[in-house]
Amino acid sequence: MRTLAPLLGAILLAACGAPPTPPPTPPPAATVATATTEAPPMSKPEPKVEDPYLWLEEVLGDKPLAWVAERNATSKAELEAAPGFGALRDRLRRIYDSKDKIPTPQVRGKYVYNFWRDDTNPRGLYRRATLAEYKKPAPKWEVVLDLDALAKAEKENWVWHGAECLYPKYERCLLHLSRGGADASVLREFDTVKKQMVEGGFTLPEAKSSVHWKDIDTVYVGTDFGPGSLTDSGYPRIVKEWKRGTKLESAKTLFEGQTTDMVVGGERQFDHGKEFDWIYRKPSFFTEELLLRNGDKYEKIDKPEDAEASVWDGQLLLRLRSAWTLAGKTWPAGALLSAPLADYRAGKREMTMLFEPKPNTSLESYMGLKTAFMTVELEDVKSSVFVHTRTKNGFVRTKIDTSPMSSVWAWAYDEHTSDDYWLMESNFTAPETLALGSATKKTRAEAVKKNPAFFEAAGLDVVQRFATSKDGTKVPYFQIAKKNLPLDGSVPTLLEGYGGFEASMTPSYHAATGAGWLERGGVYVVANIRGGGEYGPAWHKAALKENRQRAYDDFIAIAEDLVARKVTTTSKLGIMGGSNGGLLMGVMMTQRPDLFGAIVCRVPLLDMMRYHKLLAGASWMEEYGDPDKPEERAALAKFSPYQNLKSGTRYPRTLFTTSTRDDRVHPGHARKMVARLLELGQDLLYYENTEGGHGGAANNEQRAYMDALAFTFLGKQLGLPTK
Questions:
Q1: Pairing of strands 573-578, 493-496
Q2: Which residues contact 560 (CB under 8 A, 6 or more apart)?
Q3: Cis amide bond preceding 168, omega within 30
Q4: Spatial distance between the Cα atoms of 495 and 490, rounded to a whole number of angstroms
Q5: N or C: where does the chain have the smaller number of CB atoms within 10 Å of the terminal CB?
Q6: By its UniProt entry, which Pfam families does this protein fall under (predicted)?
């Protein structure tokens, strides 16, 4: 099934995700010690804006790193000495390293592949087993690549960023290996039969490359080809066809995008015995131009610019972000449409709606099997799964049994050969269960693996509530707390949110939150604010650009509702968020410092006047706005945390965390914010992990440490007892 999901996974502002698969090298960071920057021209000339902390944007400069070391030492001294820190860190490490956790399967040919980390394999093993072996309680795995051994031999801190293996034999793979967890990766060709790197094979130096197989001797490649080859966002602007045994410089240029584009790329799709070659151009985060290649000819697929396109079994699938009027009929935003690709290319526009959105529903994901199709849908943020079986009279839609108030992740067993599917299901109090089902059988999916319970959930109650935002919109949130919670404001409460990029926060199992917060008696709350995808494109678009404040009003409304209901008090209410959620934290700090007792702000955006000039920032202007456009700059200026800090205000004590190796959201955001707060005499903590990329941690040890810092800080500030 043709999809750009791996690419978007790398680019999306995820709070704490798994290491992504590539796309390019960022522009160099500023190297000046201090500087004066001028705002772009507006209707009236703006005065110069002094930024005395611009020098902190020099990521690896001696002076900034000395500043980081000093801040880190202060934070480590306080939090490592706090009661319970060491025990929590060690417990989280055991959870992340657990040998009983589900090995997530990916089927390639006759093998089930898995990438695995634990205490004896901190960087990880790429391994495989037959399905029969995989189903056993303790499978015997065949190791394909030992990343720890490779890192030791090459004296590199390799972090796994995935493998793309060539269909149908899967004997050759393109490995993406990151130094320290950054998005930028080194590309290596790997032989899964000989279990070794291919001598003289396809290799690329460190970059945010986009590389896909065409055939055994050819790849589509977008990378840093030199000056002018990247977009303003730092991703590939040019896609080439590269033949085995030739130099990269001689690769044939197929397509060039604009520097203002987000990214371009090429890929071959193998679809039910047919091959399609695609060139894609993304002018912005949520728009895409799709070209079908035939030799040197390119056919543009006629579709709405902001519609997400994919192909499955000769069907063109269009996921609409805006309403689309076609031949007198209007298809709603959020719908998933299908049409035979051949007919569509011939000009016919007879569409079938596979998913019809309602006011309280949205499409979470979709995937093709050999003869059937699946959708994962949200209804008031709870997951449901449907199989769509094709008949002579169209698709028949059948619901699969899943638990209520749950989060479900579904993917094909092998869409080329099978109608089987994997189903991973969990909720706030029940750990993940992995099942294997069949779209052609009416029997319930068979449970194959189950994660152990990593925290004590007995006695916890999960409820969904709705708060009323400033403009009257009802905004949902989940509350997880002990039954018979005393509504006297006495319980420390942690509220998390994200609210961006059409990403949904669903009711899934959070082992770290359970062990670090819920077991100790705290209340945990997940906010489903606008900007996310919980209710489809309209929910997302409601908080774009000049309307961004709506997301922040939603979060404030939930916080105020918790206080009004006497779940907690302002002094015992803590908040936490990362990436775009880190921006949310910065806005809460500056707009409502009176409402919160403590904040954890992770890998954040905070300087919204310069974010588009830092690393991948330009790719998010469709979400936030363009600071170089006067009207959009004015909207950004109203909420940009760095510019809205004021003297004479007491801000909630905050722990800021980031990563030196984060080449997606520049660590300068957090550094400069902290420097300014310290200048204002604020009491805060800052910790910068020297590795980890945008996920904040390069391995389970670092992940456990960073999470222990966060929960120890929150517990200390809000008065949560140490267990």
A1: parallel
A2: 467, 595
A3: yes
A4: 15
A5: C
A6: Peptidase_S9 (PF00326), Peptidase_S9_N (PF02897)
Alpha-carbon distance of 360 to 215, in angstroms, equals: 44
Query: Distances from the Cα of 399 to the Cαs of 355, 362, 492, in angstroms?
Result: 13, 15, 39
User: Which tokens belong to 497?
Assistant: 């949110």
Q: Collapse the DSSP code of 81 into the 3-class scheme (helix H, G, I; strand E, B; otherwise coil) and give the result.
A: coil
Q: Are 240 and 251 in contact (CB under 8 A)?
A: yes
How far is CA 136 from each of CA 132, 140, 438, rounded to the nearest angstrom?
Answer: 7, 9, 20
Neighbour count for residue 575 (Cβ, 10 Å): 29
Measured between alpha carbons, how far is 549 from 167 in angstroms, rounded to an integer?
46
CB-CB neighbours of 472 under 10 Å? 6
Residue whose C-alpha is closest to residue 657's, from 641, 672, 671, 643: 671
Split the chain (723 residues) into runs of 10 and give each run's mean pLDDT. 48 38 27 29 43 97 98 98 98 98 97 98 98 98 98 97 98 97 97 98 98 98 98 98 97 98 98 96 97 96 97 96 95 97 96 96 97 97 95 91 93 96 97 96 90 98 98 98 96 98 98 98 98 98 98 98 98 98 98 98 98 97 98 97 97 98 98 98 98 95 98 98 84
Residue 226: CB atoms within 10 A of its CB come to: 9
Q: What are phi and psi of 19, to 5 degrees?
A: -55, 135
Phi/psi for 475 (5° steps) reads: -120, 125
Token pair of 349 as six digits:
């526009």
Please identify every residue annotated as catalytic.
579, 694
CA distances to 161, 515, 697, 703 from 18, rounded to whole Å, are 8, 20, 10, 11
Tell me the C-alpha distance between 224 and 235, whole Å: 8
* CA atoms of 122 and 181, how far apart (whole Å): 13
Size of the chain in residues:
723
CA of residue 316 relative to chain centroid, distance: 26
| Residue 718 identity | L
Q: Which residue has the tokens 């449970």?
A: 447
Task: Please state the pTM of the whole predicted model.
Answer: 0.94
User: Taking the CA of residue 54 as centre, how many other CA atoms within 13 Å lie in the half-sphere pointing to its CB?
Assistant: 17
Half-sphere exposure in the Cβ direction for 610 (13 Å, CA)? 24
What is the DSSP pairing of strand 598-602 with strand 573-578?
parallel
CB 670 within 8 Å of CB 657: yes
Integer Cα distance of 367 and 344 in angstroms: 20
Cα–Cα distance, 1 to 377 (Å, whole number): 19
Transcribe 666-723 into DSSP letters: -THHHHHHHHHHHHTT---EEEEESS-GGGT-SSHHHHHHHHHHHHHHHHHHHTPPP-
Q: For residue 338, list its beta bridge partners.
A: 317, 352
Q: At what angle do helices 85-96 and 700-718 cross, to 10 degrees?
A: 140
Q: For the CA atoms of the chain, what is the radius of gyration?
A: 25
- What amino acid is encoded at 680 in this protein? L
The two three-digit tokens of residue 392, written as one number: 């002579």
CA distances from 218 to 172, 187, 193, 211, 689 (A): 12, 15, 19, 10, 39
